Amino acid sequence: MAQLKIRDLHKLLRQAPRRRDLEQDGIRLVYDGTALHMSTADAPDTVIARGDTCGFTTEPWDVTAYRASITSTEVWLRLLNSEHGDHLIDVSPFWSQRPAAITFTAGGHTAAFPAIACPTAPADRRP
After folding, report:
1. CATH number of 2-119
2. pTM for this model (two decimals)
3. 108 — alpha (psi -120 to 50), left (phi > 0) or beta?
4. What is the pLDDT of residues 72-104, one digit of tens each?
């Protein structure tokens, strides 16, 4: 799990390319223990945006989500940011079921979306 301020995650996700600009409909999020890095599935080594994490830390993880999931989360964050921008939001892969998912949790609400890829999930839970 990565924890970021709501405003920092909103700023990061707003930098995701539009769907028509992607050859593959995937946004890759990589948490290295100190920051959340965003790239696209078709150019995974090119970091588009980076957000520093704060609060609780976990092991690093790597998940690729559908661009539409990022758009939905961005709309939710826009609403939260206006009143709660300094509050923390949890971003994490979730693999207690198959396929793995990416979850965003803040204010007692969780949004979960299926993952395209999650190489850090156990082999039997990967999409």
Report:
1. 3.10.150.10
2. 0.89
3. left
4. 888 889 888 888 889 999 999 988 777 789 999
